[in-house]
Amino acid sequence: MAAVRPGLGRIIPGSSILFLCDMQEKFRHVLFFPQIVSVAARMLKVAQLLDVPVVLTEQYPQGLGPTVPELGAEGLQPRPKTCFSMVPVVQQELDARPQLRSVLLCGVETQACILHTALDLLDQGLQVHVVVDACTSRRSRRSSRSPPQTAGCWASSMARTPSSAELPTLP
What we know:
The chain is of the alpha/beta class and about 170 residues long. It has helices at about 35-50, 60-65, 85-95, 110-125, 145-150, and strands at about 15-20, 55-60, 80, 100-110, 125-135, 155. The longest helix is centred in the N-terminal third of the chain and has 17 residues, at about 35-50.
């Protein structure tokens, strides 16, 4: 029987990063959008409290508009992208963090952007935690969860990110 790698599946703030994918104005009509933005906003607050780096992307911002204000990402510089995956536009950030082991992934268009981002991150040997209550798809809530899970990602929720002993009380 093969040994399990230490920390497999565990989210540790010092070796994690939060990716916020394409939560933009034109996606407001997407199923469960207000709920996923609310959970992603809490994930952002937790990341900031724990000094976890955060990366924010916008898919073709000229056409899809800016990030929605309720995400609370005013202090972040969005990185524009024109492909599904976030990885090409954030590769320098990944390269600058050799201690990085896991990525928490939130956002829209799970069947495209979240899936391609997850696959690229898995190819780099990173653990990917798709925060299922902070992801959605134009297709359906069910399709918003399935593709990354079948690709080898961890299906995580707000409740699973770091242990309560590590987490200060949120407002």
